[in-house]
Write a structure and sequence with these properties.
This protein is mainly beta. It contains one helix and eleven strands, in the order βββββββββαββ. The strands form two sheets. Strands 2, 4, 5, 6, 9, 10 and 11 form a seven-stranded mixed sheet that branches. It has a four-stranded antiparallel sheet with strand order 1-3-8-7, with no helix packed on it. The relative contact order is 0.31.
Length: about 130
């Protein structure tokens, strides 16, 4: 059984930083694309950053490019999202997902129903 758990969310001031973690069990993340998605209040969930498995490609949405960095440690089955210079509009629930078939860009921009597994999410609140 696949189990994905996100952690690291919290309250941070604008301009601050956070590192989110995503730990997976029941699957080997080295065989999956992995991605971070977020759902802001009143909005649909959107792909923020995804990382491919076979080609190592990385995708960032325009809103986070240059501020967020995705990384993975396959040996620990863990994925990270380093977030810097946080803005109020970064507020939302951040979800980690795994995808066994698609590329990073396809995972982040495509049909989210095709994501194999999701975590329960971790809340990030950026507020002064």
């Amino acid at each position: 059984q696949v189990h994905i758990v996100e952690s690291g969310g919290g309250l941070v001031r604008p301009g601050g930083s956070l590192i989110l973690s995503c730990a997976a069990s029941g699957i080997g993340l080295d065989n999956h694309a992995i991605g971070w998605f977020r759902q802001a209040p009143g909005k649909e969930r959107e792909g923020v950053s995804c990382h491919g498995n076979w080609d190592g490609s990385t995708y960032y949405s325009d809103s986070v490019k240059g501020r967020f960095t995705i990384s993975r440690v396959n040996a620990e089955n863990t994925v990270f999202l380093q977030m810097k210079n946080l803005k109020i509009e970064d507020t939302g629930v951040y979800y980690c997902g795994s995808d066994s078939t698609r590329s990073a860009q396809a995972m982040c921009n495509g049909d989210q129903h095709q994501v194999d597994s999701w975590g329960q999410g971790t809340l990030v609140t950026v507020s002064s």
